[in-house]
C-alpha cells in the first residue's frame, strides 16, 4: 500500500528543478482535506449544517461548511509557507499569505473549498477543487497576476470527493492518480493509479430543468442523447448529482459527458473558470478526455477575473466532440 505522502515524494523526481515545495503544498492540501472530511462526516451532529446568514460574492447564501472548509484550506496553505496567495470562491478578493516569507512562497492556489454545497444538508456527495500555479511576481506579497493565468499554466490540480468514500484525485501533468482515504489509519492510499477515462460512454449530466434556457445546440444534443440507436447504446442514461466534482468523478470512471451551458440566469455559464473549470479540465484532459466551452478549449481561455464564469462541455472525448458538432451547427 502506498500513501499519498510516499507517492508525492517518489514523483518529485519528475520535476528535476523542484526542491520539494510543490510536494509540501500538495501534502498541506491533503491535510486540510482530512480535517474537512472529518467535519463533513459528522456535520449533522456538530451544528455544521445550514447557512451562516451571509451572501458571498457569487450571490449565494454561504453554508456553514463553505466557510469552515475555506478556513481550513487557507489555514493549511498559510502555515505550510509554500503559497503566496489563495483565490477562493468564498472570498471576493485574493487572500495574501506569508507576506513575511513570500520569497519562499513560490505558488499561488485557487480553490473551491466546498463544491456542491447545496447538497451538504441532504447527505449527498460534495467536493473540493484546487489549482496550483507558479507565481509570476518575483518576491514581495503575491499579486493578482500570480493567479490570473491560463489553465495551461497549472502546475498541478485536483479534487477531493467526500462521497461514499473520500478520495483525492490529482495531476501534475503526468497522468492522473486517485487516492482513497482509509479512515482507520487516516491516510490517503493509492487506489486508482494512472486513471484513463473511457473514450466514450452512455451517461449525460446536465441540469435539464434549465432546458428552455439552453442554447439550441445543447437542446438538439439532448434530443440526440435520447434517441434509440443500438450502435451507440442510445438512449443514454441521465445522471445529475448537482455537485460538479461528483458528476465528473462518476464520468471519469464510467465515461460520460457533463455540460453546464449558458442559461438565461447565467449568460456566461454558471461555473467559475479559475477554481472549478480549469482544475477539472486539466484532470479530464490528463485522463484522455476533453473540456471545452462548446467551441474552444477551456485551458486556453484568457483569465481576467478570479470569479469569471464560463460554460463547460467536459468528459469523454467522443461525446464532447459530438456535442460540439451540435453547437457548431445550431448555436
Ligand atoms: P458550489 O457549491 O461550489 O457553489 O458549486 C455549485 C455548482 C456545481 O457544483 C454544480 O454542478 C452546479 O453548481 C449545480 O448548479 P445547478 O444547481 O444550477 O444545477
Ligand atoms: Mn457556492
Ligand atoms: Mn463549486
Ligand atoms: Mn463551493
UniProtKB/TrEMBL annotation:
Its EC number is 3.1.3.11. The keyword Nucleus does not apply. Residues 197-327 form the Fructose-1-6-bisphosphatase class 1 C-terminal domain. Pathway: Carbohydrate biosynthesis; Calvin cycle. It comes from the Bacteria. GO terms for molecular function: fructose 1,6-bisphosphate 1-phosphatase activity. Mg(2+) 1 binds at residues 89, 112, 114. Pfam families: FBPase (PF00316), FBPase_C (PF18913). This is Fructose-1,6-bisphosphatase class 1. It comes from Pedobacter segetis. The gene is fbp.
Amino acid at each position: 500500500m502506498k500513501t499519498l505522502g510516499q507517492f508525492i515524494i517518489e514523483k518529485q523526481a519528475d520535476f528535476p528543478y523542484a526542491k520539494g515545495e510543490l510536494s509540501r503544498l500538495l501534502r498541506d492540501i491533503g491535510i486540510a482535506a482530512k480535517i474537512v472530511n472529518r467535519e463533513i462526516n459528522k456535520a449533522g451532529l456538530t451544528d455544521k449544517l445550514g447557512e451562516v446568514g451571509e451572501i458571498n460574492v457569487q450571490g449565494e447564501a454561504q453554508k456553514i461548511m463553505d466557510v469552515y472548509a475555506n478556513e481550513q484550506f487557507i489555514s493549511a496553505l498559510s502555515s505550510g509557507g509554500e503559497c503566496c496567495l489563495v483565490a477562493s470562491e468564498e472570498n471576493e478578493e485574493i487572500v495574501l499569505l506569508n507576506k513575511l516569507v513570500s520569497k519562499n512562497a513560490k505558488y499561488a492556489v485557487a480553490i473551491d473549498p466546498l463544491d456542491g454545497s447545496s447538497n451538504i444538508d441532504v447527505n449527498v456527495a460534495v467536493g473540493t477543487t484546487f489549482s496550483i500555479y507558479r507565481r509570476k511576481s518575483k518576491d514581495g506579497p503575491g499579486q493578482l497576476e500570480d493567479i490570473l493565468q491560463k489553465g495551461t499554466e497549472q502546475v498541478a490540480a485536483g479534487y477531493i470527493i467526500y462521497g461514499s468514500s473520500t478520495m483525492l484525485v490529482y495531476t501534475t501533468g503526468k497522468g492522473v492518480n486517485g487516492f482513497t482515504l482509509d479512515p482507520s489509519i487516516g491516510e490517503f492510499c493509492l487506489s486508482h493509479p494512472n486513471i484513463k477515462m473511457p473514450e466514450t460512454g452512455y451517461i449525460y449530466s446536465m441540469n435539464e430543468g434549465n432546458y428552455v434556457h439552453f442554447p439550441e445546440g445543447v437542446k438538439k444534443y439532448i434530443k440526440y442523447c435520447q434517441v434509440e440507436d443500438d450502435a451507440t447504446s442510445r438512449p443514454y442514461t441521465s445522471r445529475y448529482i448537482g455537485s460538479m466534482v461528483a458528476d465528473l468523478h462518476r464520468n471519469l470512471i464510467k465515461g460520460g459527458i457533463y455540460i453546464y451551458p449558458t442559461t438565461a440566469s447565467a449568460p456566461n455559464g454558471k461555473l467559475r473558470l479559475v477554481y472549478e473549470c480549469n482544475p477539472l479540465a486539466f484532470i479530464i484532459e490528463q485522463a484522455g478526455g476533453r473540456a471545452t466551452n462548446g467551441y474552444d478549449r477551456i485551458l486556453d481561455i484568457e483569465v481576467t477575473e478570479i470569479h469569471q464564469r464560463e460554460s463547460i462541455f467536459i468528459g469523454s472525448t467522443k461525446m464532447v466532440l459530438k456535442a460540439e458538432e451540435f453547437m457548431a451547427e445550431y448555436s
